[in-house]
Amino acid sequence: MSRDGANTFGDLIGMLDTLRVSCEKCGRSGRYQLNGLIQDRGRHGKIVDWLDQVTADCPKKAMISWNDRCGARCPDLPKVL
To answer: Is the pTM value of this prediction over 0.70?
Structure first.
Protein backbone atom coordinates (compact mmCIF):
# COMPACT_ATOMS: atom_id res chain seq x y z
CA MET A 1 0.00 0.00 0.00
CA SER A 2 1.04 3.63 -0.34
CA ARG A 3 3.36 5.22 2.18
CA ASP A 4 2.58 8.73 3.44
CA GLY A 5 -0.22 8.89 0.89
CA ALA A 6 2.23 8.66 -2.02
CA ASN A 7 2.27 5.81 -4.51
CA THR A 8 5.45 3.76 -4.48
CA PHE A 9 7.14 1.55 -7.03
CA GLY A 10 6.13 -1.45 -4.94
CA ASP A 11 2.47 -0.54 -5.49
CA LEU A 12 2.97 -1.25 -9.20
CA ILE A 13 4.31 -4.79 -8.86
CA GLY A 14 2.07 -7.12 -10.85
CA MET A 15 0.28 -4.19 -12.50
CA LEU A 16 2.88 -2.67 -14.82
CA ASP A 17 6.20 -3.80 -16.25
CA THR A 18 7.03 -0.42 -17.78
CA LEU A 19 6.30 3.04 -16.41
CA ARG A 20 5.73 5.66 -19.11
CA VAL A 21 6.38 9.39 -18.67
CA SER A 22 5.02 11.99 -21.06
CA CYS A 23 4.33 15.72 -21.28
CA GLU A 24 2.29 17.46 -23.94
CA LYS A 25 3.81 20.86 -23.13
CA CYS A 26 7.51 20.05 -23.34
CA GLY A 27 7.35 16.95 -25.53
CA ARG A 28 9.09 14.70 -23.02
CA SER A 29 8.38 11.01 -23.32
CA GLY A 30 10.09 7.93 -22.02
CA ARG A 31 9.68 4.40 -20.77
CA TYR A 32 11.28 2.99 -17.65
CA GLN A 33 11.37 -0.66 -16.65
CA LEU A 34 9.75 -1.15 -13.23
CA ASN A 35 12.33 -3.75 -12.17
CA GLY A 36 15.13 -1.26 -12.84
CA LEU A 37 13.35 1.49 -10.93
CA ILE A 38 12.87 -0.82 -7.96
CA GLN A 39 16.56 -1.80 -8.06
CA ASP A 40 17.60 1.87 -8.14
CA ARG A 41 14.98 3.36 -5.81
CA GLY A 42 13.66 0.45 -3.78
CA ARG A 43 10.10 -0.83 -3.44
CA HIS A 44 9.23 2.06 -1.14
CA GLY A 45 10.60 4.76 -3.45
CA LYS A 46 7.94 7.39 -4.10
CA ILE A 47 6.95 7.81 -7.72
CA VAL A 48 6.33 11.55 -7.30
CA ASP A 49 9.89 12.10 -5.98
CA TRP A 50 11.35 10.12 -8.88
CA LEU A 51 9.25 12.03 -11.42
CA ASP A 52 10.48 15.34 -9.99
CA GLN A 53 14.07 14.20 -10.45
CA VAL A 54 13.49 12.84 -13.96
CA THR A 55 12.01 16.16 -15.07
CA ALA A 56 14.41 18.41 -13.13
CA ASP A 57 16.23 19.44 -16.32
CA CYS A 58 13.06 20.52 -18.15
CA PRO A 59 13.20 24.22 -19.08
CA LYS A 60 9.43 24.47 -18.64
CA LYS A 61 9.65 23.20 -15.04
CA ALA A 62 10.65 26.64 -13.74
CA MET A 63 8.17 28.66 -15.81
CA ILE A 64 6.31 31.31 -13.84
CA SER A 65 3.08 30.81 -15.77
CA TRP A 66 1.22 27.71 -14.54
CA ASN A 67 -0.34 27.41 -18.00
CA ASP A 68 3.03 26.81 -19.65
CA ARG A 69 4.75 24.67 -17.00
CA CYS A 70 5.97 21.17 -17.63
CA GLY A 71 3.12 18.76 -17.10
CA ALA A 72 5.04 15.48 -17.09
CA ARG A 73 2.90 12.63 -15.85
CA CYS A 74 2.79 8.85 -15.83
CA PRO A 75 -0.29 8.28 -18.00
CA ASP A 76 -0.70 4.61 -17.07
CA LEU A 77 -0.96 5.18 -13.30
CA PRO A 78 -4.65 6.16 -13.18
CA LYS A 79 -5.49 2.92 -15.01
CA VAL A 80 -3.87 0.70 -12.37
CA LEU A 81 -4.00 2.63 -9.08
So the answer is: yes
